[in-house]
Amino acid sequence: MVKLLVFLGNPGKVYARTRHNVGWMVAEHRHPQARWSEKFHGLVSSDNSTKLLKPSTYMNESGRSVRACMDFYGYAIDEILVVHDDLELPFGTLRLQKGGGLGGHNGLKSIRAHIQSDQFFRLRIGIGRPQHGSVASFVLERFTPDEEISLPLVIDLAEKMLTDAYSSLPVTNTLV
């Protein structure tokens, strides 16, 4: 059973609507009335028996926040589900899985380094790959106007997959 939902993103208004912050966008949509408190190098809230965590470190230090929360509550690795952007999936494709490659995602690498495992559940939200230019710049850019139109549907699908996650893993859905 998932006891800790981790939503990855970067702090600060400049990153608020960027591709790398799609995890935080899901948290804000799914839990609009959540009361977030600062703890564990992040923002923490609750949804019934599930803890919610938005690490407020930058992406490449997300693992510090996850580890601190895990240690405090005594969560096991298989009780964690991380919601994050994924370059390896086309925009609008979502995949719920346990473990797997990290695809160069610095937030996931940090979590793996701090919890000493990659066998946590993940909701991968496809943001696509840049056709040219650097990946680092691409993930910190806003979505294209066409993607912005579809983004609410992608976030709705992510919310539905999280709701369904408690009964069926792994799952893949494509919206666009």
From TrEMBL:
Site residues, Stabilizes the basic form of H active site to accept a proton: D85
InterPro entries assigned: Pept_tRNA_hydro, Pept_tRNA_hydro_CS, Pept_tRNA_hydro_sf
Active site per database record: H20
Principal EC category: hydrolase
EC number(s) from the headed UniProt entry: 3.1.1.29
Keyword terms: Cytoplasm, Hydrolase, RNA-binding, tRNA-binding
GO MF assignments: peptidyl-tRNA hydrolase activity
Gene3D superfamilies: Peptidyl-tRNA hydrolase (3.40.50.1470)
Residue numbers binding tRNA: Y15, Y58, N60, N106
Subcellular location: Cytoplasm
Residues the UniProt record annotates as site (Discriminates between blocked and unblocked aminoacyl-tRNA): N10
Catalytic activity: an N-acyl-L-alpha-aminoacyl-tRNA + H2O = an N-acyl-L-amino acid + a tRNA + H(+)
Complex formation: Monomer.
PANTHER family the UniProt entry points to: PEPTIDYL-TRNA HYDROLASE
Family indicated by similarity: Belongs to the PTH family.
NCBIfam families reported in the protein's UniProt record: pth
Function: Hydrolyzes ribosome-free peptidyl-tRNAs (with 1 or more amino acids incorporated), which drop off the ribosome during protein synthesis, or as a result of ribosome stalling.
Record-given protein name: Peptidyl-tRNA hydrolase
Taxonomic lineage of the native organism: Bacteria, Pseudomonadati, Spirochaetota, Spirochaetia, Spirochaetales
Gene that encodes it: pth
